[in-house]
Amino acid sequence: MYYSTIRFAILAGILIAGFCFSMIAWSSFSLSTDHLWGYLFRFDDSSMEQQILATLRAPRVYASLIIGANLAVAGVLMQGLTRNPLASPSVLGINAGAACFMALASIGFLHLDVLPGILVAAVGGLLSGGLVMLLGGFFSPRPHPIKLVLAGIAVNALLIGLTRASVILADDMAYSVIYWLSGTVTNISWEQWHQLWPFSFAGLLMAGLVAKNLNLLALGEDVATGLGLNVAMTRVVTCCAIVLLTATSVAIAGPIGFVGLIIPHIARKLVGSNFLLLIPASGLCGAALLVWADGLSRSIAFPSETPVGVITALIGTPCFILLASRSKLS
Amino acid sequence: MINFRLGSLLLSLGLIGFFSLFIGAVNLSVSEVVYTLLASSEHDFIINQYRLPRLVLAIGVGAGLGLSGALVQGIIRNPLASPDLMGISAGAGLAATSLLVFQPDAPLYMLPLCALLGGLLAAGMIMGLAYFTDPTPARLALIGIAISAFLTSGIDFLMIVNPIEINTAMVWLTGSLWGRNWDQVPFIWWTLALLLPLSFWLAWRLDIMGLGEETATSLGISPNKMQFGALLCAVILASVSVSVCGTISFVGLLAPHLARMLFGHNHRLLLPAAAGLGALLVLISDMLARGLQPPIELPAGVLTSLIGAPYFIFLLQRYKGWS
To answer: What count of other Cβ atoms lies within 10 Å of the Cβ of residue B204?
Structure first.
């Protein structure tokens, strides 16, 4: 317990450093820690720098913190639910499904555009996630981990094809949609932040509530049932939390991949596999990763912006290769 | 029966190829097309400079990808293998994209060479990983897809950091024959002309390899050399195809499977059949891509993935060798 407290403290330190870095670094105006300090504690609305922080940077940084936490926690939940180290919202097609439905809605398909974006994304994520589970044989008596992942990849390819086709056929704004499809937090405003946080906190709360049950489920389904756990109920709540967390993130920032895949593995190395510790640790790690990645993504082609999803993919896919080639699987 | 099928494959290739000359933003009558083909007319640009080179390229690229897929599946004896699922196409695509981004005025012949280098590196990467981890076929597919995803995210990165026109980006992200012309034709057709005979020479050796390495050795075939040669062939074909029109996904997976269903497992038939079916797939995709909603152009790779991904799922359902 003592060690994990220290580790949590270190994580929180990295997170706060990332917050400060992302708030002030790589801006077209020179911002300094003084401005940040002023914005946080003595807000002065006559200072232009503090106004920039308040209107442009703050919603973006807060959103990347919470989106990182969302995706990482969704990844932990998926790995706990499927007991598959390669499971994550992006690998099992939930990101792609949510993004595909958002794209279909934006071109007015089936009048989906009358629904709120987050609901559309949730429906898409739920459908594609369900399809992957079904095709990957998750409901069969002996689910095979690689089959699940390969089914996810195939559904991903299908959905990305559909998304691209619908976007290109529909309008000439294709480039901005391609940009959105790689996952970006660039243009997040306070308005989007207010759509984002209630759902995210609800999802994170649900994740916290099922943590104990997931610990039991990790012992195996039979043991968990024997210990008095309602397995079906746990699974349903976990799935709801996953879809809620992923769909809100995708609806606001596009499909940012691989956060949910890497972070749970790092967090497990840090605090062990107790979900009560693992879920908060992943949340912190994910938030730290995304906020640092967003800060760095601005540095790459400054002053133009690089989508943060491209950075997470470049970091995440080698980890995926490593995990896929490790012999422990199956 | 086999001759009939081979004949109808060639016939449909010819018919659909001819038909594809009519598809596009401008409607032309039969007489106009035939007249333009035989002598020049006012539609010379549309037919001879625009649709005809695309037709020739689609056939060449499709044949290259189909043949490459059949060779890869023949060597690795893994039904889930194909150049694009093993990251070879993505490697070639990444190398070609880097060349276009960093050396935009490099001569045209550099593009296939650079793509080949990328394809070879990616093939080396997956073979190295396969050597160290000794994976089951399904895991090999997974590792390949992971490498492919990594290289594709590299392409994505290059495309977004260096903003360019949407159609060009689409060519390299999903594969499309948009804006290709006669300039690219010699590369793919010379490669085919050189490697098609070589792959026929490999065909019966691949059949014997199917009997097991020991039998093959006792019949006078050196398995390692053979595998290396066939793999090199496959990588060259896939890389040159990619350098022409980007990574058109799933053709290298789909064509050999279809060929095996229609023509059986004998490689002497399977290889040409896979080439023909690959050509047919890319041809139809390109035709639809151009003709669904002219003048808007879909990338052909999107259409092949809409056919290919469900087929891949079907393969997974049928696949038995999980453990």
So the answer is: 13
Alpha-carbon distance of A53 to A45, in angstroms, equals: 11
Interchain CB distance below 8 Å, B305 and A175: no
Residue of B nearest to A143 (CA): B322
List Cα–Cα distances, A5 to A42, A211, A283, in angstroms. Answer: 32, 19, 15
| A207 inside 8 A of chain B by CB | no
Closest in B141, B149, B170 to A150, CB measured: B141
Task: List CB contacts of A277: < 8 A, sequence separation 6 or more.
Answer: A4, A271
Containing structural domain, residue A92:
62-325
A252 in a structural domain? yes
Question: How far is the C-alpha of B203 from the C-alpha of B82, rounded, in Å?
Answer: 17
CB contact under 8 A, A158 and B170: no
Q: Please, which residues have CB within 8 angstroms of residue B291's CB and are 6 or more apart in sequence?
A: B23, B24
- Asked whether residue A33 is assigned to any structural domain, the reply reads no
pLDDT digits (tens, 9 = 90+) for B196-239: 889 888 888 888 887 888 888 888 888 888 888 888 999 999 99
Across the A:B interface, residue pairs with CB atoms under 8 Å apart total 132
Q: What is the pLDDT of residues B294-305, one digit of tens each?
A: 777 888 888 998
- The per-residue DSSP string of A79-122 comes to HHHHT-TT--TTTTTHHHHHHHHHHHHHTTGGGGGGS-HHHHHH
Nearest CA in chain B to A312: B153
Instruction: List the 255-314 stretch of A: residues with Cβ below 8 A of B.
Output: 300-301, 304, 306-307, 310, 313-314
- Look at residue A255 and tell me if it is in a domain: yes
Q: Is the pTM of this model over 0.80?
A: yes
- The reported pLDDT for the residue numbered A1 is 62
Q: Measured between CA atoms, how close is A9 to chain B, in angstroms?
A: 33
Residue B76: CB atoms within 10 A of its CB come to 22
Contact B170 A147 (CB under 8 A): no
C-alpha to C-alpha distance for B184 and A195, rounded to whole angstroms:
50
In a domain, A46, yes or no: no
Helix (H) or strand (E) holding B12: helix B2-20
Structural domain spans, chain B: 62-318
From chain A, pick out residues whose CB is under 8 angstroms from the CB of B296. Answer: 168-169
Task: Check B147 against A300: CB less than 8 A apart.
Answer: no
List, as one string, the DSSP characters of A243-293: HHHHHHHHHHH----SHHHHHHHHHHHHH-S-HHHHHHHHHHHHHHHHHHH
> How many folded domains does chain A comprise?
1
Spatial distance between the Cα atoms of A182 and A311, rounded to a whole number of angstroms: 10
| CATH superfamily membership of B62-318 | ABC transporter involved in vitamin B12 uptake, BtuC (1.10.3470.10)
Cβ contact A26:A299 at 8 Å: yes
- Within 8 A of A306 by CB-CB distance, chain B residues are 157, 160-161
Q: What is the pLDDT of residues A2-44, one digit of tens each?
A: 777 888 899 899 999 998 888 888 777 777 788 888 788 877 7
- A112: domain CATH number is 1.10.3470.10
pLDDT at B68 over 90: yes
Q: How far is A2 from chain B (nearest CA, A)?
A: 38
